[in-house]
Design goal:
By secondary structure, this protein is an all-alpha fold. The chain contains 20 helices and no strands. It is rod-shaped, with a radius of gyration of 27 Å.
């Protein structure tokens, strides 16, 4: 501690042979972040820092988590929750082989997972709620591909026009319980319905005018 107080850098102490645990243990709380930065610059990995008593939150605040550090931490047996707490992004975790279900169980949001490239359909299949996915901006097409019913999507705020754009026909919506008047009240014209693939005869049978 005297050497650190006198201005010796953590990296120089490490390179002189002083062990990491001793350096961290003798660093005052208000200097922990700078010590971690200094040790990292000397080649000490996040995994080594953790094994020698560094606080995960301090590691996260002291540096940007690299892809190689994420892989090393996973290989070192650290849990998904611990690595996320250290500052790893969902994208980095996915790239390193962490499953979508593991990230969900550790509290990663639908928004974050969608941003990381996971589709709404994948999240629906993993058990995430339809309302949550629609609110997060998951595309109607991927949700439909994963088995969501058009009527359930509409009940959770997806517009009829979005469903038509995703390939659902007006006839399918009406078979699913939506009336022609409700479709037209939602701003969907007969020409929109025909363009989306609806049969004009079916539309006439449902009261299109």
């Amino acid at each position: 501690q005297a050497l650190l107080s006198a201005g010796a850098s953590a990296s120089s102490l490490y390179q002189s042979g002083i062990n990491i645990q001793s350096i961290i243990a003798n660093t005052p709380a208000n200097q922990q972040a700078s010590t971690i930065q200094s040790l990292s610059s000397a080649g000490v990995t996040d995994s080594q820092l953790l094994q020698n008593g560094a606080n995960p939150q301090t590691i996260a605040s002291a540096q940007v988590m690299s892809d190689s550090n994420v892989s090393n931490l996973i290989s070192g047996g650290y849990s998904t929750g611990e690595i996320l707490q250290m500052g790893a992004t969902p994208q980095q975790m996915l790239n390193a082989g962490t499953s979508v279900s593991d990230l969900i169980s550790n509290g990663v949001s639908a928004n974050s997972l969608l941003t990381a490239g996971v589709t709404g359909g994948q999240l629906l299949q993993e058990g995430m709620g339809l309302a949550q996915l629609v609110q997060a901006g998951a595309s109607a097409g991927t949700l439909l591909d994963a088995g969501a019913r058009p009527i359930d999507l509409m009940n959770n705020g997806v517009s009829a026009s979005s469903l038509l754009s995703a390939g659902v026909t007006a006839n399918e919506l009406m078979l699913d319980g939506m009336s022609m008047s409700n479709l037209q009240a939602a701003g969907v014209s007969v020409s929109d319905m025909v363009r989306s693939g609806s049969n004009i005869g079916d539309l006439m049978n449902h009261g299109a005018s």
